[in-house]
What does this fold into?
Amino acid sequence: MDFHDNEQEAAFRKVVSAFLDSEFPQELANRPEEWGLFNGAGRLGHTFRDFMKAWNEKLNARGWAAPAWPREYGGAGLSVKEQFILSEEFAWRRAPRPGGIGHGWAGPTIMMYGTPEQKAEYLPKILSGEHFWCQLFSEPGAGSDLASLQTRAVRDGDDYVINGQKIWTSGGHAADMGILLARTNPDAPKHRGISYFLFNMKLPGVTVRPLLNMLSSHEFNETFFEDVRVPAKQLLGEENRGWYVGTTTLDFERSGIATSVAHQLIAQDIAAFARDSDVGRGSLARNPGLRAELADRAIEAQVESLICYRIISMQERGEIPNKESSIAKLYSSELDVRLAVTGMHVAGLWGQLSSHDEARVLDGRLPRFYMHSTTSPIGGGTSEIQRNIIATRGLGMPRA
Ligand SMILES: Cc1cc2nc3c(=O)[nH]c(=O)nc-3n(C[C@H](O)[C@H](O)[C@H](O)COP(=O)(O)OP(=O)(O)OC[C@H]3O[C@@H](n4cnc5c(N)ncnc54)[C@H](O)[C@@H]3O)c2cc1C
It folds into this structure.
């Protein structure tokens, strides 16, 4: 892999950088509650939501709201490396990018399996920000083993009637639409009886109940369906083939570079705090091992970026990362936890003070980062599942 930009890539980097210089308000770059966590509607305050709406419009005008999407669907048609550069530059400036389920999952899957009507109806509304999407996959008895899901969809005339329950629906309370997996054939082998729906969250019979996390923050929900009638035209792909639709993702933006850069920035911030503040210097004096711990985090954040480069170079060659994506997810989410713990070791008891406390350190970012980091090794496939994939597909180990 050549780590340097060629002439065209260097020119594109300058364009992105100039755009951020002129358009991105620096006071937003250090929003305490956004430390390294760019997406997630539930976490954003109202002012920030207003900013994101205007920001989305600016990015959409350049095709940068969904740079991985082909031009015909309103994307920028950028090369894999250009998408990488865009993500990297935004991340170094701590500038948020639109994203989430609509841009990353629903849109690309509709492009691949949608009818012309479905594409015309939904893709422009994802890009414009008119529709916010959620993911209705997990159930109380089906998480890692998602194919065991029990929510039923029964064909009745021109509709399907949905009954059942989903859980951990991030942003479900704010969502207009959801991608829903439901069982249409209970007698078939479990992967073959599932269908994929483009689901309107405002339909009668849908109840969304908040689940507060340990930050007392309303990010995810339980979603209940009671005789919800969904028009059959909302089926995406073929009936009973939904598992294969669900495992599709065309999102080539997932190099992970944004998270890797965010981790490098956090490691730098914690190191600066240890070096420059009385609290940090006190911690270093009491615990000389902290120097080595900080050095390890800085090295790990660099290693993470090399894993991202590996993925991007595979994608540039037209290869589809498989075990490599699991390596990246595992490494990144576990580094999230280690960084948060190191931050707490440096800040000591001050690390518990939030952005509302006068005596806060590091802008009060640590408590949120620390508590939120615990979710990283769970969401999007747990660390154990990633290790299983690396062991079987990567190392050729037997399944049991
Ligand atoms: C912040 C966050 C946001 C989320 N948002 C959404 C969302 O928007 N929509 C949605 O549908 N879901 C969402 N989820 C749910 C997420 O996909 C599931 O939590 C995840 O798939 C794990 O499923 P589970 O919680 O049922 O745990 P389980 O699958 O029950 O796992 C419990 C434990 O057993 C381990 N385990 C399970 N199977 C194996 C195995 N085969 N080998 C070894 N160990 C195993 C797991 O690693 C874990 O430690 C979210 C989760 C989080 C944390």
Summary: Residues 134-135, 137-138, 143-144, 168-170, 220, 375, 378-379, 381-382, 384-385, 388 surround flavin-adenine dinucleotide (CB under 6 Å). The domain at 7-99 is CATH 1.10.540 (Butyryl-Coa Dehydrogenase, subunit A; domain 1). Residues 57 and 128 are 7 Å apart (CA to CA).
